[in-house]
Amino acid sequence: MESETKQEIRQRILDLIHHQKEEDAVRKSRDICFKLLALREFQEAGTILFYCSFNGEVNTFPMMDRAIELKKRVAVPFIQKETKQIVVMLIKSTKELIPGSYGIPAPRYDAGAVLASLDIDLVLVPGVAYDRAKNRLGRGAGYYDRFLSELPSTIPTVGLAYDFQLVPALAGLEPHDRPVTQVLTN
Predict the structure, then answer these.
(1) CA dist 72 → 1, 26, 50 (Å)
(2) CB-based contacts of 68: which residues, under 8 Å, 6+ apart?
(3) pLDDT tens-digit map of 110-151
(4) Most exposed among 14, 16, 20, 24, judged by the fewest C-beta atoms under 10 Å?
(5) DSSP strand E in 39-156: where?
C-alpha cells in the first residue's frame, strides 16, 4: 500500500486501532510493556518521558506505574495549545492526571514540576504508524515533531505500536517529520 497518502494511512490505522478487540489491545499492550521493561535504555534511565495513552493507543499507564515503583522519575506532556508546544512535567502518580487538551490525560500545570528536555533520559513517543526506517506518522498536529526537533539526538526515543501499526514505508515525509530511535511492538 505504498501509494497511500499520509492521511489515508492515518485513517486506515486509526480505524484498526478503534476496531481492535479490547482483550487484544490489553494483551498486546502488556507484551509491549514487558519489552519496554527489558530494554537497556529503560533500565538505565533515571527520568522517562511517557505519553499518556488515550483512544485505543498502546496503554502506557501500567508502564508509568511500574516506572514509579522502580523509583524512576516519570514525566508526561502538558500540551500548550496556544504555543503548540509540549511542556514536560514530572508526576508522582498517574492518579493525579486529569483530562487535558484534546481529551488526553495530563497533569495540572505546575511551574515547579516543569522539567528541561536535557534532564530526560528516555522518551516514549506516540504514533499512528511507523515504517521500517523508524519514521513516524503522528496524528497530524506536529506537537511531537516540534518537541523531538529540539531534543538532543543523544536521548533515545522509542515508539510504542501494535503490530498492525508498522507499515513498509511512509510516503510524503517532510523535513519536519522526526523518526524515532526504535519501535517496540507486540
Answers:
(1) 41, 24, 12
(2) 74, 92, 93, 94
(3) 999 999 999 999 999 999 999 999 999 998 888 999 999 999
(4) 24
(5) 47-49, 73-80, 85-91, 98-99, 105-106, 122-125, 129-131, 136-137
Kindly state the cell numbers that stand for 39.
530494554
Q: How far apart are CA 101 and CA 80, in angstroms?
A: 8
Q: Which run of H or E residues covers position 134? A: none
Q: What residue ranges do the domains of the chain occupy?
A: 6-185
Read off the pTM: 0.94
Grouping H, G, I as helix, E, B as strand and the rest as coil, residue 88 is strand
Q: Are 79 and 86 in contact (CB under 8 A)?
A: yes
Return the C-alpha cell found at 42: 529503560
* Fold observed for domain 6-185: Rossmann fold (3.40.50)
The DSSP H or E segment spanning 42 is helix 40-44
Q: How far apart are CA 15 and CA 130, in angstroms?
A: 16
